[in-house]
Structures are given as C-alpha cells and as structure tokens.
Amino acid sequence: MDIRDLDRRAGAVLGEVVGQVRPEQLWFPTPCPDWTVRGLLRHIVSLNEGFAAAAIDGSAPLQTWTGGRLGDHPAGAYRRSNVKLADAFASGPLDQLMEVRELGTFPRRTALTFHQLNCVVHAWDLARAIDSPYDPPLDMVEMALNLARRIPDTDALRGPGAPFERRIKVPDEAPALDILLGLLGRNPDWISPLG
Fold it and tell me: Is 190 among the domain residues?
C-alpha cells in the first residue's frame, strides 16, 4: 500500500467535508470538547502546515503546528495547506526521519500514517458538528485503526492538553469506525447540542 496515495485520498475525503461547512456553522460545537468548527478547521490547517514543514526540514517550531490561518475562506485555507502537505511528501525517502510535535521522531512513512489518522477522525468530527453524512473508505479506517490501537494510554499522550483524549469503551462488535473513534476518545453516538 502506498501511504502517500492513501494520505492524499484521506485529505481529499476531509476536504469534501470541509467544503460543506457554511459560515453560520463556524461557531457550532464539535465532538472535540474545546473546539468549535472554526477552531477545529484552524487546527486541521495547522497540522497540515506542521507536517509539511517537518517533512521538509526534519522538524518545525510549535508556532507552525499551531499557527494556521483560515482568513475569510476556510475551505481555501484547507486546500492550500493540503497541497503544501502533498508537495512536501511527494519526493524524498519515506524512511527519512522527521519530528511530529510532542509525539517524537518517526520515519516519514509513520508520520503520514499519523496524518492520515487525523484526516479520517477530524472529518468525522466536522461531519458530526455540521450534521453531514460521513462514510470513509474502509482501507482508510483500517490503517487509522492499526495506529490508534498502538497509541499508549499515558498522561503525556491522553487527556486535557494532550494530543489525544482518553479512550472510550465501545462494543467489540461495533463497526471499525466506531472502534477507531472510541480509541481516540470520541463517543460514536455524539450528537450536536444544536441538533
């Protein structure tokens, strides 16, 4: 499996959801406890820019990982950041090391797997927030699920202020997407309080 292709496809799936966000929905709550739709979009753009910079330079300052700007057109900001990310990973060996924020240093292949996981899960976050259907391809969910199962349940990685939320138990027979969401601290049954 070509992780670059899978990540490009995941970015396109996320982009489809981003493109559905209407201006009046920017202040809607999301399944991410501290973020509105606008805050989540800014986070997504920031991640793209951080991954892109780190892929090129080996690491990126925290400001790059958190400083994404949406301007007046969030979907355009997302598209530009997604192109920047794809261009950064288009060439160069996948075993070359790069730093991914506080998570550590990984081969570019693994970093793209982290990014792909973010695309799959944040697309669900946005789709739920704006009450839009979301049915990602199974290969994307399975790749993200493989990685999510390996993320340790430690205070450094999970909980308030950490990259991931604490795990939520979902039934073993639940669909793969629901299991993925639970592993990353999302309640698959989350419904917007505005809905």
Answer: no
